[in-house]
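Collaborator request, handled under Task 6.
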Amino acid sequence: MGILDVPASELIQDLKEDLKTKGLNQPRFIDYVKSGAHAERAPLQRDWWFMRCASILYRIYREGPLGTESLRTYYGGKKARGVRPHRFTKAGGKVIRTCLQALEKNQFVKKEKKGRILTPAGQKYLNTISKKTLERIQREGPEKKVKREEKTTVSAEEKTIREALRRQSEGGKPKEDAASRDDKKKQKLKEGTQAQNA
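Structure tokens returned to the collaborator:
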């Protein structure tokens, strides 16, 4: 059983919760900044910095050695520029550097020529967390699947409600499909040619 046998989203979530207890010092400015120039607002999660640390640790395990610039590219996104087309923008470097420095202080990563790599302590830490995550997933088992199915049905219900509200705002008129519109145009043209011939 290895780290890659566990779903990444579950592992990163458990890493985040465990990193909070490891004494990582979250910088003060994190409450006021966005994750990058591409983001319109700051993240809604209060502990998003710990999530970024966990994600970076997992990313270094998967693709390391990694430097700040390659991580900035990975966490970047499309920036809305008004009426102009969206353009890809890298994520903020300061946030990523603080994450790397905190992980380095806890001896999970170390510097190499081309960026940071995982230390043996970091490898061991990831292995222990992945084992705990796998055990938790096996304990929860079918209950979690049921919860996920409930979430999908709720989202489907929300979609139908939103569609009904949208139609109501348009005056309650049912949306015409393209075929019926084409039929109406053809009928008008036919009537117009008949009127000219008569």
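The cover message to the collaborator said: "The CA atoms of residues 25 and 102 lie 7 Å apart. The chain has a mean pLDDT of 81. Please let us know whether this matches your experimental observations."
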